[in-house]
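COMPLEX REQUEST
Ligand: pyridoxal-5'-phosphate
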Amino acid sequence: MENSLPTSIDVVEAKTSKIDSVDFENLKFGNVFTDHMMVCDFVDGEWQSPSIKPYGPIQLDPSAKVFHYGQAIFEGMKAFKDDDDQVWLFRPKENINRFNKSSKRLAIPEFPEATFLEGLELLVNLDRDWVKKGRGNSLYIRPFVIATENGVSASPSNSYKFFIICSPAQSYYSGEVRVVFAEEFSRAASGGVGYAKAAGNYGAQFYPTNLAKQEGYQQIIWTDADTHEFLEEAGTMNIFFRVGDKLLTAPINDRILNGVTRRSVIALAEENGITVEVRRVPVKEIVEAAEKGELKEIFGSGTAATINPIKGFGYQGKKFELPEPSKPYSEFFKSKLMDIQYNKTEDKFGWRHPVKA
Ligand SMILES: *Cc1c(COP(=O)(O)O)cnc(C)c1O
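STATUS: Structure written out below.
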């Protein structure tokens, strides 16, 4: 695969901006989109010339394969603005890389990395007024690709559409989160598509999550599909357990999404002398630690919420509440990550990527 397309990116600016009609103090996550989007078509065996144009609806034939066979994958990443109005992306190459891993698993042609990054930067720069300053404010960026070929034969599409759309976001607060450990349903199976950000992985979680909500939980912690004995991840977040002063998190396998935030937390823990054991985490071990009062914290990691503390969990009909830790790791990692994202601290790991103005 070539790293970049031979053509340049065509930019058509919106005649008017919607920005004045947006209430930036009261944003609902992922509901409002910026003035522009990036689009690129794959036809005749090639990605065509990409363009950035006004955000708006698209037209598809009802037989387009994405509707029938779910050939669709996506990414989620963020841009931040510092006090000097510089806009930064956080580890964008990791997302681009993962986008292509997901594509490959779904038999979707990979997108040239350099063109992806170039278009992303052009788009974010064009909509830079939508990236608000201030801790907690960000621009959520959603790249995705769908199969667009007409016809309901069950075979990979010969045409695709690539998009990047952007949505201004405020600090993500989902309220108090309690989770239930999965005993019956599974998110992903070995050999399947769990490691890809495949659209269908999310649709399949809604029903079991609705059942969990009826029991008073907000989310499910998925366990391994074979035995349900090991804790894997939260479905849109990776998951960490603090037992004593040690952190535990499951190793990446083909059922688990390899989160950028997860890897960043592990790196920050190592840098700050916090022990992280990346190994299988038995449900039994966590339940026993909770009973003995040794389970101090559970938190999720993901782009949308950064770090999401979890207040309690349910297992086999029993409910467990976690203590209020005096110096929570969840706050420590969240604030370390945000310091880097908002350019408040030195970037030792090289995670900030500037968006050229
Ligand atoms: C996106 C996602 C995550 C978090 O990944 P980040 O790169 O940290 O945003 C975790 N689990 C699943 C299933 C996901 O889709």
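REMARKS: Residues 199-214 form the longest helix (16 residues). The pocket of pyridoxal-5'-phosphate is lined by residues 76, 197, 233, 235-238, 257, 259-262, 301-303 (CB under 6 Å).
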